[in-house]
Every structure is written in C-alpha cells, then in structure tokens.
Q: What sequence folds into this?
C-alpha cells in the first residue's frame, strides 16, 4: 500500500544525498570532503527520517530489505521511484548551479580509475563496498544491535568505503547516486557497461550481505535454542 510519508521521506533524503554528495565532488571538495559529505548526510537523515521510512535512500539497501522480508516488494517499488526521482531532481539542480558558474556536473559523477579500464574489477569493488555498507545497515538498523548509534555506524561505514573506493570507482554503492548525475554527466555514461557496473555491482553486494546476515541470524537462533534446552535440563 502506498504511503505518501515514506515516499516523501525517501525522496527528500535521496535528494539531499545526491545534492550534497555529488555537489561536494562538483566543487572539488577533495576525497575526504566527498566522503564526509556522503557519510554525514546518511547519518543525519537516518536520525531525521529513520522513524518514517527507515532512511534507505539507496535502491540497493531497499533491495536487501526486500530480500529479508523487512520491506514488501510492492513497497520497494515506490521506494525506488522516490529514490530515483530525488536523485534526478538533485542532479538537475546541480547542473543548473554548475552552468551558472561556468562549471559542469561531471565532478559529481561516480567514475574512477577502474571504470573504463577494468570494468569487471570496478564492478567487484562496487559489490564489495556495497556489501560492507549493507551489512552495516542490516546488523545495526534492522537487527537493532547498535541502538541509537545505528545511523552513526552506517555513516562511518560509508565514509570509509568512499575513502578507499573513491579513486577506484567513484564509490557509488548506490544506483540512484550514479543514475541522477549520469543523465547530465560525461561520455563514460554513454556506455552500457557503465550502468552494469553501478547497478548490478551494488545489487550483488546487497545480496551477499543478506546471505551473511541470514547466516548470523540462523546461528543466533541455534545458540538460543541450545541455551534454552540446557536451562530446561538444569531445571
């Protein structure tokens, strides 16, 4: 069932992530600046809209939560629509800003040294870094292991991932983060394989994170059952 509050929260959150994150790249904030812009935005909106939508602001995160059953597939569709719409509008505004000052939005695009030269390796890097990010989401936010620190843990994970992956792939880890600026960015995005890297890489990483998350949950259930059985025997 459509929920307008969830839709708006995801739209605004994704808009903010792309406008601030890609904007930091566009104004040449440097690798650390770009990493902080993304991570702090995710952490801030996790606390701002987390109680409304969960603050996915990333189609790969929504995909993972749909795989776990936390979000129904029907709900996932309007999460994705909100996320891509927010990303496109943010990129459109960034392009207008860039043109007004004689610049381009290309600095905000997620492209790295491996994008054109080693596309398969680039997809592996995107998958691996997304695996780390989605693991942080699942274990901290979904399982509730970190309580009030969940948003901080997720934001820090994203900062670390961008510090490593930024020079290699641009460290998108988020199909919407790539797609919005890509509409208005450079020639690399005229190649179909580029979209394969930045769409399927994160989805593969998200899937692997769900597998690991389910494994740990199954182990916890076994340990709880064994502990309960031992208690009953002692009684």
A:
């Amino acid at each position: 069932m459509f929920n307008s509050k969830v839709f708006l929260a995801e739209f605004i959150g994704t808009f903010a992530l792309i406008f601030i994150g890609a904007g930091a790249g566009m104004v040449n904030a440097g690798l650390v600046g770009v990493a902080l812009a993304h991570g702090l935005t995710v952490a801030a909106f996790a606390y701002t809209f987390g109680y409304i939508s969960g603050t996915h602001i990333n189609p790969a995160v929504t995909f993972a939560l749909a795989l776990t059953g936390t979000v129904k597939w029907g709900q996932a569709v309007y999460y994705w629509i909100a996320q891509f719409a927010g990303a496109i509008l943010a990129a459109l505004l960034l392009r207008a800003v860039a043109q007004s000052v004689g610049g381009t939005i290309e600095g905000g695009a997620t492209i790295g040294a491996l994008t054109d030269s080693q596309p398969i390796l680039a997809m592996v890097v995107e998958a691996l870094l997304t695996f780390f990010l989605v693991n942080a989401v699942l274990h901290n936010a979904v399982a509730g292991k970190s309580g009030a620190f969940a948003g901080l843990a997720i934001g820090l994970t994203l900062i670390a991932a961008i510090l490593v992956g930024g020079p290699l792939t641009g460290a998108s880890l988020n199909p919407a983060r790539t797609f919005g600026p890509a509409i208005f960015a450079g020639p690399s995005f005229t190649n179909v394989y580029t979209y394969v890297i930045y769409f399927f890489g994160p989805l593969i990483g998200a899937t692997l994170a769900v597998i690991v998350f389910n494994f740990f949950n199954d182990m916890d259930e076994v340990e709880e059952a064994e502990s309960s059985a031992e208690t009953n025997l002692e009684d």
Notes: Confidence is low (pLDDT under 50) at residues 228-233. The two ends are 48 Å apart (CA to CA). The chain is about 80% helix and 0% strand.
